[in-house]
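Reopening: structure tokens for the zinc ion complex, inputs below.
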Amino acid sequence: MLEDLFKVVTTRFNGNEKTDKKAPAGNHIPKDLLYKCPRCRNVIFEEEYLAVNKVCPNCNYHGRLTAQERISLTADKGSFVEFDADMLSCNPIGFPDYDIKQMKLREQTGLKDAVITGEATIKGSPVVMGVMDSRYLMASMGSVVGEKLTRAFERATKEKLPVVLFTASGGARMQEGIISLMQMAKTSGAVAKHSEAGLLYITVLTDPTTGGVTASFASLGDIIIAEPKALVGFAGRRVIEDTIKQRLPDDFQLAEFLMEKGFADMIVERKKMRSVLSHLLKLHGYMPEKKD
Amino acid sequence: MNEKTAWERLQIIRDKDRPTVNDYIPLIFDEFYEMHGDRHFGDDAAIMGGIGRLEGMPVTIIAEVKGRNLDENKKTNFAMPHPEGYRKALRLAKQAEKFHRPVICFIDTPGAFCGIGAEERGQGEAIAENLLEFMRLKTPVVSVVLGEGGSGGALALGVCDRLGMLENAIYSVISPRGAASILWKDAGKEHEACDMLKITAEDLVNFGVAEAIIEEPNGNAKNDLDKIAENIKEFLSDTLIENCKKDIDVLLEERYTKFRKIGDFIEP
Ligand SMILES: [Zn+2]
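Re-run output (same inputs, fresh job):
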């Protein structure tokens, strides 16, 4: 629902769109593919940006990863086993073009919806993991996101496992109407049961985490970690600016702001994330599984 | 019940003469003592809370407050709560749990307030905390949407055992105006969005989100204040009589299941 989040950050820095259209369709990566940082506007080669796991070398903004990229950076190699991989959402309110839009997105991204959940190990410690992917309808939460996350928490509760969630979202999914809103209550209920069982839940807030996801499971971690310069908030920036009729400071709602206001425990850089998660898991007694 | 469109109902609930919770409280409850503040930051007049009696039974009442005129609306911020409002609600709900009083929530908000202070003080965290804590609150909770049920700002008082909606009330994930501006880049298409979103009481009963529709006298609450107050009171008493008899663990499991089963997906 936050249309101002739909920023095209990858751009062909050519100055002449027409050349692009005439360019022969090759399967090599064009040399002119550049990445412009949405925080500092610094421009680097896409290749270079990918090599540093999508972290801006100029301002340290931690860019958006795909769910697959996140899983490979976090979980032990080959350890991730996906849950509920085939679940698909319906169109409960008959929202115009929702089905077509999803079909296109499934093709483009290889995802079935905006979250991937599963079981994995992080430096040997077993976890239930969830990763949201902002390429899919801004990782908004509808029935599938709500159901998959709820099942992930229920499974973790049953198997006495910790949960690590990487959040990113534009909020509740408008296209599924009131059913999306109810996923906020449903997921929060599952978090409550997991918590009552004395189990650890770590939230990692990534860019951007907003709306109904901030107002439900993303804010309910025992430990809340944020990535540098990730946008995290309830209301969209433009909505607030329209209300107060003034421009907001650039750092408003960024991870650093969040920590200053007391809503995040720590800001952790991507290159240290796996190690920090592993230590936190071990501090809570989730030790590497012994292999026989 | 007559067949009004969602848009027609929206006009009815936006009518400046629509009764608000302040009109209902003296007619529904025998006594009412208002309680103030979240004990951390301040007192948010957008959410009113207190203790009263319903048919002789002590209850905690929590309500989003629409003003009846501009002055009142300035005070209650047009019923758009800040985090401290939601935290006051939670404080009073926990107090109710301690003293084994049922909680009655009245929902009537365009949404949680969007502003600098609200973000600084954790609007998202405040709502999230309410969802989690109301889900496991060890006392019966019943909610009623009086007019506007605006998104997360409404849901923060909507995690309950049973949800009633006034006949013309709406409950939506996004305001029709917001939907129109995202969908068609034109907030002026509010009317179309409103009729598309499936936000009426009947829709919500069909989706399993609401359990009851509370009839408005001759199709509009303002036609007969005594009658509509009586209808709300009847819904509240019936629900609480039934739910207070239940073992609390059973009630909590039913509350979890009510939300747990909402979702529309397939697994081919
Ligand atoms: Zn940068």
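Chain A has ten helices and eleven strands. Residues 1-27 of chain A have pLDDT under 50 and may be disordered. Marking as resolved unless the reporter disagrees.
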